[in-house]
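pls read this protein.

:::
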Amino acid sequence: MPIKAEGKPIVYIVSDSIGDTAEFVVNAVASQFDSGRVELRRESFLTDVERLKEVIKEAAGNKSMIAYTLVLPHLRNLIVSEAQKYDLPIVDVMGPMLEAFSKIISVDPRLEPGLIRRMDEDYFRRIAAVEFAVKHDDGKDPRGFKQADVVLVGVSRTSKTPLSMYLAHRKLKVANLPLVPEVEPPQELFWLPANKVIGLTIDALLLREIRLERLNALGLKARSGYASVERIEEELNYTRKIMRRLGCRVFDVSNKAVEEVAGKILYAVKESERNERR
């Protein structure tokens, strides 16, 4: 057995992913013994057999132990067999929990390193997308249009905001802009590639009903020009001109659920991404 060096004890953190889980547990335990009395050395993304053997041999030559989170079976078997050769203390941080789960869940573990990290990344991407949608709702801050995955344009009450939020939960950064005849769209809109913009349109009579319901809910008079057929036709004609100018795709939201329209937008975005990769 190798002669152990004198000095501060070393805890090697070995993982086929980042190793945060093992380090958290080690720090929690070390705090019970005065954390400053041990040195931590982390070996992350370790999937090479020869490198694992080197780490075990190095650890055996020091006053040390290994705490590991390895989900790949051949690496877990290797670290056990190699550690036995050197009488090296090792702690399997994840293995016992995997075995316990297997007894109560009738599904085999996926045994993929880094899954929790990917789940965290998905979560933070979703949060970032929601924050982006809120910040760029209803035409706020057009300077952010170039960072958007897609920009929705259309007249008032064409589900731009609900669609933006739904798509944000699918990790898309979405901005939306209401089109009004009296207001020229920001120049940033016309700088975008056509495939980054989605136009939303709707049947005029249906839109009138939606707007009348909105006015009633707000306690406003139904005679408001906002819900007049003439005004609605004017707005729809104007948006058609803008959309032709943009050369963007246009989806009719008449009598369609948010999920249905969002599905079409997601397909359009993915199709554009595939075309860009070709």
Summary: The chain has two domains: 10-113, 117-277. DSSP finds ten helices and eight strands in the chain.
